[in-house]
Structure formats: C-alpha cells, structure tokens
Amino acid sequence: MAEVRKGNGPLEGLIMRRLGGSRHRVNTVRADLPLRAAHHRTTAIIGAGLAGLTAAAILAERGFSVTVFEKNAYIGGKVGSWQARLADGFETRIDHGFHGFFRQYYNLRRMLDRFGAGSRLVPVEDYLISTREHGRFSFRDTARTPVLNMLSLWRSGLYRLVDLLSNRESRHLLEFLRYDSERTFAEYDDVSFQDYADGIGLPAPMRMMFNTFSRSFFAEPRLMSTAEVIRSFHYYFLSNDLGLLFDYLDGDYEEALLAPARAYLQRLGVRILTSRAVQGIERAGTGFRVGGIDRDSIVVAADAGSARQIVKGSPFIAEEDPATFDRVQHLASSQGYAVLRLWLDRPGGVGLPTFFSTDRVELLDSVTFQHRIDGGSSAWARENGGSVLELHSYALPIGMRDETRIRDALVKEMEQILPELRDAAILHEHLQVRGDFTAFHTGMHRHRPGVATRIPGLFFAGDWVESGLPAMLMEAACTSAILAANGLLSREGLQEEPVFSVPKKGLFA
User: Fold this and answer.
1) 87 and 71 share a domain?
2) CA gap 59, 268 in Å, rounded
3) Pairing of strands 65-69, 42-46
4) Are 223 and 278 found together in one domain?
5) Does 1 score more than 70 pLDDT?
6) CA torsion, points 435, 437, 443, 447, in degrees to nearest 10?
7) Phi and psi dihedrals of 240, rounded to 5?
8) Do 340 and 320 share a domain, yes or no?
9) Which of 162, 168, 264, 375 has the highest count of CB atoms within 10 angstroms of its CB?
C-alpha cells in the first residue's frame, strides 16, 4: 500500500507515481485478529537502544511481560545520555553525538510520537557541507523530487554537466537510480566506494559530497561498500520527495527522548535492568534463560559487536541454527569514531546551521553548535558569553587511538573552518573514542543475519540486521525491531504492527 502525494507539476507527479509514492506500507495488518495475547507470554529484550525500546514498547502494549537487559548504566544506546564529571571537576551530561532525524524515518518517528518525544523535533536550518577547497554547498534549496534533485545539484557547483557528458563512464551513476537490493549488492558490495569513484572518474566536488556521505556511515571510502552507498543514496535522496533536510531533538537526549520513553515503558509494566550485561543465552525447555530469568522468547537488540559475543556465548544457537550462528560471527563494528565537546569562551558560527558537515583534512567530519540544542549547554553559553561545540570524526583511520593526537587534530581543523574561534580559550573539554557502530564495509552484506531465525522465539533487531528494506541507521534499527515484534505477534495469532518504508526499488530498477 502506497501513499502518493501530489507533485508540484506534471513531471514531479509522474516521477512520484512511478515510485508509487514516498511512503509504502509493507505488511498486511489483519484487523480481524486480536490485539492482545490471550495467554501470559514473557519475552526478554537484550539491549535498550532504539531497537530494544521499540520492541519492548510494542510487545508490552500487546500484553507481553517484558524484561529489558542493558549493559550500560543508561538506556538509549547510540542516543544514550549520561552524567559525567570531567577531569577539571566540571559536571555535565554527555552523549554519543548529534543525530539527524530524517523525514522518511517513518517508523522511528511514529515511535517518538508514542513516547511523547515527537513534539521535540525541530528542523535543521540547512544541510550544509563546508569545505576549504570548494567553498560551501547548501542543499536547502535543492529540488525534492527524485531525478530533479540530482539535476539541481549542478546549481550548487557539485558538478558540471559538460564534465559528465564528456565522460562515458559517468553513465554508471545511473546505478543510483536503479537500486534493487539483490542485484545492487550482488554487483557492488565487493567494490569499495573509493575504487568505484576512481573507475568512473567522479568529478572532485561530487566525489567530496559522496565521501562526506560515506563517512556518515562510519567508514572511509576505501572501506565502504559501494552497494551500501547506492542504497543510502536511494533511501535518503532518490526514493522520496521529502528532501535532504532533517530534524533534531531540541534538548538533551535524556530529557527530550529517554525520560519520556522510560516513563511510557514503565507504565506498560516493562522491567528495565541497567548495568546488566548479557554474556549468553541458555535453553530452558522450549524457551530461554537469560540473566537467570526464564522467558518464552528473546529479541537480541544489542549493538553488532555485543550481538556477536552474545551469540558466541550461546552454544544452542550453533546447534539449532548453524547458518545464523555463522552469519552473526561475521558481524563487525565500525573502524572507530571520536566525539570532542568543547566549552569555549566566545561565540562562533554566526550564519551557520546548528549542524554542518565538512570535507575533513584529517579527522573532522562535522560540527554541532550544542548550545543551540540542549538547555544545559545554552545556559552555560549565556552565563559565560561563549559557545559549546561538538566535533565529530565518524571514521578514524584504522588503528588510530592516540587520544591526544585525535583531540589536537580535531581542534586544529575546527580552527581552520571556524577562524573566529582560532584564539578561543577552551574552558572545558570531553573526548570519547569509541568503536561500537556497525561496519558497512565491502563484502559484509551477504553475511548479515535476518530478523527471524530458525529457532522459534529467537529474533534479532538492530541496524546490522538485513530486513529486506532500504532503511538505514536509526530507522533500520527501529524497523527491524517492529519486524521482530511482529514475528512474535504473528506467532501468537495477533494483529501485526504496521511497517512503513520508502520504495524498495529505484526509479529505473
């Protein structure tokens, strides 16, 4: 079932009709089936990130007794937030970094509304890439309709039509409009985006844009699967008429999202156990035992690296579903990322959006003006006449873990791209270097496990799961969780939760 919005003109309308609209419902919800289980059913969710919270909410709403196990002292996973005391004694809340909530995150945004957090979304002023060599590229006024949006990029200087028309290899860019999961991954998953760009002679500004986009999936272009780049461009740019602009939560993640989500789950009777790392799952009759608690079913919704270790510590999975066991053991975490938050003695970034990307010299991929987002940072900036910045490196070079080197490189690049802050005093700072995002490197897609397993009652959820839909990042995590919950609802003969997606295939597929 698809929803087709009226275009601004005949051509826009024709393109969107060809795609079947921007928003498709991908499952059949039988209204004749009951909503709640007639018998008491218990489930354990391993991981309290977006996937775990989503699965917990849906199952608890349907009468399941839900227990959530979370290894951290806080919930939220990659949108988690925690109190920290810095080395100089300064106390503040810290998180994993800025997240953009795109308008085609249909399933996630429905869950935010459920939790009472949807009203906290505000639009970013522009999708901007600030570079040293090519200037600034804005996507604010780019056409929103697929194909027309690609054609309109030439206005911003990202490419010249003459360069593409004179280069026969440019025809390969049509692959971005031919996205089809099976064929695209068969042909391009083993090709790094760097090799692909070299092979077709991608113009330098356009290559910069794609490289910036690639690194937002926590991989350098030399490691990033070209198929994943094609899928991501299909999902974010070429399958809908919503544009590249996105929203962000206007507050600290704890206040704006996690506190209302926790309250919502607790009202449903969900038991959330933090600081409870799960090493493995045991069999308990026809059900399972996790953390000393017997459950009828399990949803593993941990991050990729943790999921791999949990499955490795669960020998019965290897015995009952060796193919799934093998696939999970191929999961890998990203090459590492860094988030540096700085409290500066002066303001900066006048005329720039709250968040913008860069073309990086060594490490810096994006800058966030945190004092425009959360109340604590805003109050500090007002009281001190300064600003709070977040500097993010999405893909650290392999093996780079020297925190002093990382910190100094990020500060140096920040001063180059924001020269008004070159002499600013850093009053407080916090650096985190992590490696817990999912890797989308070459050759990995064929090994990704699906949502369901051959073991009744055991499901997976997370952005590392292959759902059969083009969703990525936070929306992939949330969507897979709904699919996992639906697997359990269907098992009980209950009505499924609706699942929405952009078109599964490209315009010219």
Assistant:
1) no
2) 10
3) parallel
4) no
5) no
6) 110
7) -155, 165
8) no
9) 264
Domain edge (last residue) among 212, 238, 264 = 238
Give the CATH number, domain containing residue 297: 3.50.50.60
Handedness of CA 433, 438, 440, 446 (dihedral sign): positive
> With b meaning 16 or more CB within 10 Å and e meaning fewer, what string describes 151-189?
ebbeebebbeeebbeeeeebebbebbbbbbbeebbeebb
pLDDT at 332 > cutoff 90: yes
| Structural domain of 371 | 80-124+246-252+334-434
CA atoms within 13 A on the CB side of 176: 21
| 154 occurs within a structural domain | yes
54, 482 Cβ separation under 8 angstroms: yes
Prediction pTM value: 0.96
347 and 419 fall within a common domain: yes
- Kindly give, in sequence order, each residue whose CB lies less than 8 Å from that of residue 209, ignoring residues fewer than 6 positions away: 129, 137, 153, 158
d(CA 175, CA 104): 21
**Domain CATH number, residue 105:** 3.90.660.20
Residue 346 sits in the same domain as residue 316: no
Give the pLDDT band (50/70/90) at residue 244: confident
Scan for tokens 């990029």, then name that residue.
153
Predicted confidence (pLDDT) per residue in 25-67, tens digit: 999 999 999 999 889 999 999 999 999 999 999 999 999 999 9
Rounded mean pLDDT of 174-186? 96
Among 204, 238, 272, residue at a domain's last position: 238
The rounded distance, in Å, linking the Cα atoms of 286 and 269 is 24
If asked whether residues 203 and 293 sit together in one domain, one would say no
In this structure, is residue 172 part of a structural domain?
Answer: yes
CA dist 181 → 17, 227, 229 (Å)? 21, 9, 12
What are the strands of the beta sheet with 121-123, ordered from one edge? 101-102, 246-249, 121-123
CB-CB contact of 261 with 53 (8 Å): yes
Same-domain pairing of 326 and 464:
yes
- Measured CA to CA, the distance from residue 89 to residue 296 in angstroms comes to 46
For the cut 60, the answer to whether the pLDDT of residue 3 exceeds it is no
C-beta separation of 23 from 506 below 8 A: no
* Cα 156 to chain centroid, rounded: 27
* Within-domain flag for 413: yes
Contact assessment for residue 451 and residue 459, using Cβ atoms and an 8 Å cutoff: yes
Domain count, the chain: 3
Q: What is the mean pLDDT of the chain?
A: 94
> Would the pLDDT of 4 be above 50?
no
> Does residue 41 sit in the same domain as residue 52?
yes
- Residue 169 belongs to a domain: yes
Count the residues in the chain.
509
